[in-house]
Design goal:
The chain folds into 2 domains: 11-242 and 357-420, 3-Layer(aba) Sandwich (Rossmann fold), CATH 3.40.50.720; 246-353, Dihydrodipicolinate Reductase, domain 2, CATH 3.30.360.10. 39% of the residues lie in helices and 18% in strands. It has helices at 22-35, 45-48, 61-64, 85-92, 97-101, 104-108, 136-153, 180-188, 197-207, 224-232, 246-259, 276-281, 284-302, 308-311, 356-376, 405-420; strands at 11-17, 50-52, 58-60, 73-79, 113-114, 156-163, 212-214, 236-239, 263-273, 315-322, 331-339, 345-353, 381-382. Helix 1 crosses helix 15 (356-376), helix 7 (136-153) crosses helix 9 (197-207) and helix 8 (180-188) packs across helix 10. The longest helix has 21 residues, at 356-376. The structure holds nicotinamide-adenine-dinucleotide.
Amino acid sequence: MKQEIKPATGRLGVLVVGAGGAVATTMIAGTLASRKGLAKPIGSITQLATMRMENNEEKRIKDIVPLADLNDIVFGGWDIFPDNAYEAAMYAEVLNAKDLNGVKEELEAIKPMPAAFDHNWAKRLNGTHIKKAATRWDMVEQLRQDIRDFKAANQCERIVVLWAASTEIYIPLSDEHKSLAALEKAMKENNTTVISPSMCYAYAAIAEGAPFIMGAPNLCVDIPAMWEFSKKMNVPIAGKDFKSGQTLMKTVLAPMFKTRMLGVSGWFSTNILGNRDGEVLDDPDNFKTKEVSKLSVIDTIFEPEKYPDLYGDVYHKVRINYYPPRKDNKEAWDNIDIFGWMGYPMQIKVNFLCRDSILAAPIALDLVLFSDLAARAGMCGIQTWLSFFCKSPMHDFEHQPEHDLFTQWRMVKQTLRNMIGEKEPDYLA
Ligand SMILES: NC(=O)c1ccc[n+]([C@@H]2O[C@H](COP(=O)([O-])OP(=O)(O)OC[C@H]3O[C@@H](n4cnc5c(N)ncnc54)[C@H](O)[C@@H]3O)[C@@H](O)[C@H]2O)c1
């Protein structure tokens, strides 16, 4: 049945946590350049992808559902460094000066608000542009005020909050995360060991009715308390961890082995990365958060319990090495040991020389635009259809995450079809 979708009228405020980071500044600069006609939004599903309709006609997604227009976006956010988006983008060295200069004025106007930060959650970072907060609850109150002030000052009709800030240290799920009442109590009691700064941003966004997206592997909204809160406030949440490079490859190759019933005995993945993200991940506690996210992929695709002969004993290892000379130009190597007919072994080597933020920027933009669409369509809680963009898709305790990129793509299309009351076309016709 067709869903009621409110039109995308007025301005959409996009508040980015980590507004001075590599992903954030690359997304913002690229969006500004696209709307000026200076660059093409390559890699963006919302801007470029098409879908086949029930009558076999091929239509652009942006012509099927009412997405916010890029011209209606106002960017803002928070960072632990006070640099404006132009200075921060120059520091990140993802885009060259020629490309940044085309949107220099607009970027210079984007100045981050002081961050909600706790050094214990990202020990390699020493920022100066930070809020003073007596408790985590006070942090939330200040962030809520920031959102309200930004919305009023920029005459925005709606806000989306996107976490593109550094990965926090690994923490397991604890009792304080299991219900909204317990979470709020822990925030008020200032339990800084279980309440991360990212949880304060997420809580503030949801409380203000703004969809929240987790682009890092942080636990943050991946807890029952936040699922409860987002449903109570009727707000969509999405995450986690942008699926940009090596995991994108993994979630394409693994389904291929499985579809052809080829066995896998080992998968070794390693990276070198030299940007600030790499520096933060060089700390073992922060790497652990990323490692858990990257490791989660294979098992759910292979289903070893169903296919023990093929995937019962896969040795999976993931490494990230901080190597400053490479900056944002990550290099990833995968060695995959597979076996075929009668168990004969073969190897596949993948060497992906990627640009991390060039791959992540369109994902971030699409997550923002689709989350805003979901909110206008009255959808709330975990947006599993946005798993397509995520390395570690959020899911509740009753469901399994879906990792296969092509199944995830079908989920995107199915959700969009449901919104407009369309059936799947007959691909054999
Ligand atoms: N680049 C990719 O392909 C990719 C893929 C998946 C996930 N990610 C994740 O996205 C995030 C951003 O990556 P990046 O390469 O832009 O990193 P980055 O280090 O360039 O940017 C992160 C920014 O966050 C800021 N920051 C840290 N803690 C903050 C806080 N509490 N409040 C506000 N700002 C804060 C930092 O000052 C920095 O400017 C990381 O968590 C990374 O793991 C990136």
